[in-house]
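Researcher: Sequence of Alpha/beta hydrolase follows. Predict its structure.
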Amino acid sequence: MPLKNVIFALLFSVSISAAAQSTASANVKTFQLEAPQLDAIRTIRVYLPAGYDSAKERYPVVYMHDAQNLFDTATAFSGEWQVDEFLDAQKGQKVIIVGIDHGNEDRIAELTPFANEKYGGGEGAAYVDFIVNTLKLYIDSNYRSLPESKNTGIMGSSLGGLISFYAGLKHSDTFGRIGVFSPSFWYSEEIFQFVRTSEISPNTRIYFLGGTAEGEAMVPDLLKMKSLLLDKNFPQENLHVKIVEGAEHNEAFWSSEFPEALQWLLHEN
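Model: Prediction complete. Tokens:
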């Protein structure tokens, strides 16, 4: 099966098994939030650091997409990232993770900033507006977050990597940390032009990840994006590009790379 067909099989598939036992940590809380920009009610899954209720400190926040796949095998398609397992065992950096459930049949539209002639989409600006102007305001008002851009990240894989990169560039005053795993830059050439015309804060940190077995376009597109950023005088020390030999487009790859990426992104400039 061609790679793009495989990817879209993953994009469209939603697997929620009533029989599967939940693997989510007790530190993961779930609630519903109205998303007027999307004309929808969206499920939000928040990971709070161990001891949050008894502590007084504030924490950095990372917003992530496809929350069904982050914490819980019972809601995940093709495995979970095990974000909560890693953070529960973590002795150093503490962080709040805000996972946004994807919109099922609306997923492609919401996670693509520009339309594709064949697959449609292109409603990502509204989704990002929901994160910036509704969800982040709610999180900062109801949790002990560190709201500044240097303490706020956005991160995702595949289309989630694409929309994270777009959101981070469009709102660099909001997101100072951008995690871009296996991004679907192939979806529209407009993302490259968007970079050329965007003003990017030099204090932003960007982490690119890709595997050599993710299709012919993955590595060249990542290197092209790296060159575009450096051509704009983006600081090389704030841009990390990791290419993993033989890595495929799946949750197992992203899960294994999450700890290293998170720690690099949250490192102080």
